[in-house]
Amino acid sequence: MFRKKHTQNHSETQPVDEDAEIRELRAAIGPLSGRSLMYCSDACLRRYLVARSWNVDKAKKMLEDTLQWRASYKPEEITWPEVAFEGETGKVSIANFHDRLGRTVLIMRPAFETSTSPEGNIRHLFYLIENAVLNLPEGQEQMVWLIDFTGTSYKNLPIKTVREIVHILQNHYPERLGLAFLYNPPKIFHAFWKVVKFFLDPITFQKVKFVYPNNKDSVELMSSYFDTENLPGEFGGKATLKYDHEEFSRLMTQCDVKTASYWGLDRKPHNVTNGHPKLEEVPEHALLAPPAT
Fold first, then answer.
1. What's the alpha-carbon Rg for the chain, to the nearest Å?
2. Taking all residues of the chain, what is their mean pLDDT, rounded to a whole number?
């Protein structure tokens, strides 16, 4: 597939051979192993190239930074028992419906934010983002955020935490956000937005949509992306949004098993045979147990 590419040295556009660019980026990052190798699929490399306007050197730097972050932060190892307490209010959850393009939907309600731990708050969110990414329907690479700002105040929007979330999302999850719908933002949010928008790169900025109740343009926008029969009333639809923490916890526990299987976390080195570690299965109850304190 070819697409137009803008260069810093030429005003006219040039065609890009995407497959060749992906091969060049793969060669540039060099040999990989383990989870880094699994992470760096061709689709992944393409997302980093798109995020850096098909500049291989910049995409390489961005990808290397992500691999270092993932090796340190280990987002794929976060399990629901570690972050479940952060989700008790239903402030962030994965919807049981998709948008019209079949994309996974994350529902966020900042007014339900009660966390006293910025780190716990961030880990909870990126646990759900990792989960949403792993469970994207075939052929989809992006998710959609529905953010209901009804009842939100400044205390629900810690600027330092928001800034850290934006940094991680933009630098380590490129091209994973399809659209973010900011529904019914209060007047105080506009002052907050003036600060936040400086953290956003132009591509992310364009993906943010402000929508308001009883606004014709907003209603048409939402109905163009969602079936109103599935869309919760909090976002102008006809469905009822009810967060059941116990039921959601059961779903996330099942997803933890899927995540562990995908990344090979349900296997561990046992001994070495012919220079290679032999793997053995880890019992499911041990996998899902909360970390020792």
1. 21
2. 86
